[in-house]
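2024-03-11 09:14:02 INFO worker-7 job=invfold-0412 stage=load source=structure_tokens
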């Protein structure tokens, strides 16, 4: 969300520096402006937020999530039209991670992987029953144990629900807050290389569609990559 060319360049540099991923093309769709209930301000957001902190029974904006899924699907379809043989990794941070998870598990054509930074598994009908295609898609979920906005317990419950649905999930915890660290990028690089050695050994480019969150895009500060 709210990404721009300069910040996209920083994200690309961080993926190279920390994850060792140099053969990717970033696609950074921006979220629309909407009135966010928690702060009563117009902000770039994939869907509305009704509570500052997500707990077990927090109300979720299902309609907004569906609209976000449609917007991201349009981006995926366009990338596939332009580059039909290029594998796609769909990832995001916070709200973007939620949308990446929802959209990724709704695909009928395989994605290479789904990546969720500091997101969660929402109470959405998409997760009632997963298709065989969805179960086969590798999912990399990483989250900070000190996150004050999306408590680690809620994330663990969501990951357990995905695993119980036979989703292919790898879950990592980090001693950080609502942010992204170099260790997460490093582990992401290892995850992709371990699962897709033949793909990532090639010189061909890969598409990484990255949906961020309210705070716009990635930047590096004091050794941590944050949003």
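2024-03-11 09:14:09 INFO worker-7 stage=emit residues=227
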């Amino acid at each position: 969300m709210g990404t721009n060319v300069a910040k996209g360049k920083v994200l690309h540099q961080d993926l190279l520096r920390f994850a060792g991923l140099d053969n990717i093309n970033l696609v950074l769709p921006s979220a629309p402006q909407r009135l966010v209930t928690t702060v009563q301000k117009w902000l770039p957001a994939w869907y509305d937020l009704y509570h500052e902190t997500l707990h077990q029974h927090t109300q979720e904006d299902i309609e907004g999530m569906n609209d976000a899924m449609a917007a991201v699907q349009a981006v995926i379809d366009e990338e596939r039209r332009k580059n039909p043989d290029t594998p796609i990794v769909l990832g995001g941070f916070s709200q973007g991670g939620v949308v990446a998870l929802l959209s990724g598990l709704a695909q009928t054509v395989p994605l290479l992987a789904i990546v969720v930074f500091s997101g969660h598994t929402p109470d959405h009908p998409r997760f009632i029953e997963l298709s065989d295609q969805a179960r086969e898609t590798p999912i990399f979920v990483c989250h900070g144990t000190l996150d004050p906005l999306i408590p680690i317990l809620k994330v663990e419950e969501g990951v357990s629900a995905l695993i119980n649905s036979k989703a292919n999930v790898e879950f990592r915890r980090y001693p950080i807050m609502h942010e992204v660290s170099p260790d997460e990028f490093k582990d992401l690089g290892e995850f992709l290389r371990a699962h897709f050695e033949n793909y990532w050994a090639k010189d061909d480019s890969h598409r990484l569609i990255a949906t961020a969150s309210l705070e716009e895009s990635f930047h590096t500060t004091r050794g941590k990559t944050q949003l």
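2024-03-11 09:14:09 INFO worker-7 stage=report msg="The first strand starts at residue 24 and ends at 27."
2024-03-11 09:14:10 INFO worker-7 job finished
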